[in-house]
Design a protein that fits this description.
transmembrane helix; 6 helices; transmembrane; globular; single chain; mainly alpha; cell inner membrane
Length: about 160
Amino acid sequence: MILNKSIGQFLLATLATYGFTIYFKLPKKVRLITSALSGFIWVVYELLFAFSDNYMISYLLSSLLIGVCSESFAVCFKKPATVFTLPCLVPLVPGAGMYYIMYYFIESDYVVMREHVIKTTLTTSALALGIVLSQGIVRIIRELIKNYKSNRINNNLTHE
């Protein structure tokens, strides 16, 4: 049952993101891979939420994955990481939360509106934090690889 739901959600997230990539004129070369990555990230989010029942952790880990994948794809496709990051965030952005904030504001139900403001703010904060942390992680990994390679070269030169 969960597999059928995941396949459907993957397809919908992929299709929605593909439309986004067309509208914002992303290079044709990366549209499909970015859309598929977005669909995959959405399924990861859904699975994380199903097992943890904590939307904050699910959003944080999903956006960490977006950041790491975006940085990797940026190197592979020789494009800026934002080309991959922004479309992948499309399914995760809390649009419904923003809608309910405005709805309850208009209805003058400020108690419920406040709950939605808090949840939406926490959600967007988790998304932003995940992206920022992933960039830091990628930089640390790149430095470690660079240091490892330079140490290996230096060791080879001293042993010759």
